[in-house]
Design a protein that fits this description.
0% strand
Length: 200
């Protein structure tokens, strides 16, 4: 089996990093705009960007088919909308002098027809939904153990309950997909052993 790119295992750590920085920013009761807000959102933005090639890599581990294409597409749509949301939050925080000003800019953006629905309500959750479906497909194909979809589902639901669980959600996503790395390493080792024996 082809081992997925290393970005698949790095991207979830940025999700956890965003969650940790967010909690740190909230600890003093004043979160945004400021260095803590910007640092957290930049880390989150990097994580979403890194997930784009990671998701494409997950899709390549599955055989061609409409379900695979749909799952990858849904996940990418969720990523794009999340990237827009993070980017907007960073820009608004950079422009605002205080939290009230940042909220005003954010509301002006989200009140644009279709923006709240696309980039806040429906879009970002599609990322987590797509990851769950991809994990299920990979488990059905024997690429992941049976427990990976369960761990991925719990990790996807956790931020919906409260964003305070984002650090654990990122680690859960990593735990769900990390068997792909081990399986890929085993496959690569077997392939090297076969080539070495053929040269004897």
């Amino acid at each position: 089996m082809k081992s997925p790119g290393v970005l698949l295992f790095i991207a979830p750590l940025f999700v956890s990093g965003y969650g940790v920085l967010r909690l740190f920013g909230l600890a003093d009761g004043v979160y945004g705009p400021g260095l803590d807000w910007q640092a957290a959102h930049i880390v989150g933005l990097i994580g979403m960007v890194l997930f784009v090639p990671a998701v494409l890599g997950l899709g390549q581990l599955l055989g061609p088919g409409g379900l695979r294409t749909a799952a990858v597409t849904v996940t990418l749509v969720g990523l794009v909308t999340s990237i827009v949301q993070f980017g907007a939050d960073i820009v608004f925080a950079a422009q605002a002098a205080d939290k009230a000003g940042m909220s005003r800019l954010s509301h002006e953006f989200s009140d644009t027809p279709g923006v709240r629905l696309a980039f806040y309500t429906v879009g970002p959750p599609l990322f987590f939904l797509g990851l769950v479906v991809l994990t299920i497909l990979l488990a059905r194909a024997g690429r992941l153990p049976w427990w990976s979809p369960i761990v991925m589902t719990v990790s996807a639901v956790a931020p919906v309950l409260t964003l305070d669980l984002l650090p654990l959600a990122g680690l859960g996503i990593l735990a769900a997909v990390v068997p792909l790395r081990r399986a890929g390493d085993e496959s690569d080792s077997l392939a090297r052993a076969f080539r070495d024996s053929a040269q004897l």
